[in-house]
TrEMBL record:
Active site: 183 (proton donor/acceptor)
InterPro entries referenced in this protein's UniProt entry, alphabetically: Ribonucl_H (IPR013520), RNase_T (IPR005987), RNaseH-like_sf (IPR012337), RNaseH_sf (IPR036397)
Gene3D superfamilies, alphabetized: Ribonuclease H-like superfamily/Ribonuclease H (3.30.420.10)
Key words of the record: Exonuclease, Hydrolase, Magnesium, Metal-binding, Nuclease, tRNA processing
Keyword Magnesium: yes
Name of the protein in question: Ribonuclease T
Enzyme class, broadest EC rank: hydrolase
Annotated Pfam families: RNase_T
EC number of this enzyme: 3.1.13.-
Cofactor field: Mg(2+)
Species name: Rhodanobacter terrae
Length: 219
């Protein structure tokens, strides 16, 4: 991850009041963050150009070993296609998985001149709940994410495109979505990141249009 220019870092820090948006998707063994396993996590830090438009930074991801005693709902595993017993997953224990993700996020926060990361997700409370619960289980002291604030692309997709389902919102935004790749943490995180950037950048385009109109009116 390259070092951002001072101007770019300042622009990102100012854009979201000192928070760096980082898109996160988790795949799990169910819907209960306290009792069901965290099985995959992917994070996509965002950056901003000199023109004020957001774009994606490289994705960081890992498979995660179920914590001792974790529930694994067969219906969830059928949807995700994850086999937690497959040794080829290369899964990390929860603490190591968090370390792996958080290190990259903290680095991105520092380079962007921000104070903290803010989680962006599709149904973000779900992803944030699993991250927070894993943090509590591990006693992790260096969680870079705000503990309860987040940006939710369900709301943003509904506002901008009238669609709340991820695949439909992505397609409505003029992006591509392959349903065969869905329910992979990396794929869903990257599509969510593209959707978030599309909505925020659409707003930036409106700002520039209004500024141009004001300039014409002043002339």
């Amino acid at each position: 991850m390259g070092i951002l220019s001072n101007n770019t870092a300042s622009r990102m820090a100012e854009r979201f009041r000192g928070f760096l948006p980082v898109v996160v998707d988790v795949e799990t063994g169910g819907f209960d963050a306290e009792h069901d396993a965290l099985l995959e996590i992917a994070a996509v830090p965002l950056t901003i150009g000199a023109d004020g438009f957001l774009c994606l930074q490289p994705t960081v991801s890992t498979h995660v070993e179920p914590f001792p005693g974790a529930n694994l709902d067969p219906r969830s595993l059928e949807i995700t296609g994850i086999d937690p017993t497959n040794p080829l997953r290369g899964a990390l224990a929860e603490r190591l998985a968090l370390d792996h993700i958080f290190h990259v996020v903290r680095e991105a926060v520092r380079e962007a001149g921000c104070q903290r990361a803010i989680l962006v997700g599709h149904n973000a409370a779900f992803d944030l709940g699993f991250v927070n619960q894993a943090v509590r289980r591990c006693g992790h002291k260096r969680n870079p994410f705000h503990p309860f604030s987040c940006f939710d692309t369900v709301s943003l997709g509904g506002l901008a495109y009238g669609q709340t389902v991820l695949s439909k919102a992505v397609l409505a935004a003029g992006l591509s979505f392959d349903s065969r790749e869905a329910h992979s943490a990396v794929y869903d995180a990257e599509r969510t990141a593209e959707l978030f950037c599309k909505v925020v950048n659409r707003w930036r385009q409106l700002e520039l249009l209004e500024q141009g109109q004001l300039g014409l009116d002043a002339a």
